[in-house]
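User: Here's a protein and a ligand (beta-D-fucopyranose). What would the complex look like?
Assistant: Let me lay out the input and then the predicted complex.
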Amino acid sequence: MSRRLPDDFLLGCATAAHQVEGGLTNDWTLMERERTGWIRDGSVSGIACDHHSRYRDDLRSLADMHHSAHRFSVEWSRVEPHEGVFDRAELDHYRDVVRTCRSLGLEPIVTLHHFTLPQWFAERGGVVDADAPRLFARFVAVCAETFGAGVRWWVTINEPAVLAVLGHLRGEWPPMHRSMRSCLAALGGMARMHAAAYTALHRVAAAHGWTAHVSVAHHERPMLPHNPGSVLDRAATVLPSAIFNRWFLRACTTGRLLPPVGRGQLVPGLRGSLDYLGLNYYCEEVVRFNARQPADLFAEIVAAEGPVSAFGWAIDASGLRRAVERLWAEFRLPILITENGVADEDDELRPGFLRDHLAAVADAAAGGADVRGYLHWTLMDNFEWAEGYSKRFGLLAVDRQTLARVAKPSATFFAEVCRTRVVPDPIPSKS
Ligand code: FCB
């Protein structure tokens, strides 16, 4: 059964500055230079996909593929390379990205913090610094004033829980901390930063009579007990899931720093600070109790059975439907899928993945969930954080020597969905 998506349903893809732009100087590039061996394929972000110079061609190719929206991030370290010093040329650059999107019929969705930080900000303590909310909000307000009415959809922070866990608990990403204390402090710090940014965006929008829909991009990774009959396995999912999947959203809706981060203290501007819910969804996780893993709150992740991506992440589109339905039931906020994609070496999985996940979204919407759009991760193969260039999530392949872009079959498939707004019947499997 084919499904039709509404004409105003946003369809497109998402990128992040550090992964595609090239030529950056931020907390990641510092660590990429100073620490050897932590990027798994030995690469550095370097020139990435040179998107900073090639953005016009890249945006044109999105329009040629009939996308109606595009999510990208503004790199704070470019716009404010030194504390309080804003770079006019870089602001003009991003304003032109916004204008080019608009002129090509692409709704721009702007992320203001996608994992990376300016070095001066990281040196002060980064997201846990007491002054972080004020400093972030100042940068955010400058962006809002510069882009004007051109931007209606904003993402303040991409995946706060992922940064808190990988950067502050597991020590795999800058700032390479390894403590639960640091992880919880980072969540609290980012909640304050989000509140300040939300307030700043609405202040600027109200002063000019502009529209602003503001949210975070929340990474939802539902945790399922390995043995549903085991009390311990079930218990092992509770705390990790509460911290990873719900803490931030509940902070934004209640306005409070709830336990285990705080004691329920109110943060100015935090209550009701999601105008919609930005949802990044990749997979569900199966978890089993392991007494030898206290640092992971006794939750051991069990390798997925069944189809998996090149990352080893389970592929099951019904998980996306469940996530959308659950979040809609719990929060009653319009949902924008801000990321969903698959690491896939040769584009064998991606066309079917896209079909099935778009169908899952359409079904959740048909069941009553208010879903406003779907943004695929990602436009082109890029620098996948600590995996380097080894994981390929792109609709377009990028030749690492020439940086030439080549459309994969999935790009053509998705373009047809964007053009017709029809999610076709399942693609027959090759075997
Ligand atoms: C998400 C990130 C994005 C990308 C995808 C694969 O967690 O937001 O930058 O790395 O995963």
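Summary: The mean pLDDT is 97.
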